[in-house]
Amino acid sequence: MLIIDSKDCENIDKALKKYKKKFEKARVLLQLRTRQSFTKPSVKRRTQVLKAVYRQALASGKIED
Fold this sequence. Notes:
This protein is mainly alpha-helical. The chain has helices at 12-26, 28-36, 41-60. It has one domain. The longest helix has 20 residues, at 41-60. The termini are far apart. Belongs to the bacterial ribosomal protein bS21 family.
């Protein structure tokens, strides 16, 4: 649960802005999306390796974006 400390004279827009920033930093939506479906650890590792290979190919100039 996110708690925002606001002063009595503070504008509601500023409080909402603080809440949105805190919400993004907490990565609540990312956690919800990852928990919706289970992925096996081997599949996670495979995707990480493929991403690393792709990034390395981009850095070496083999793939042009």
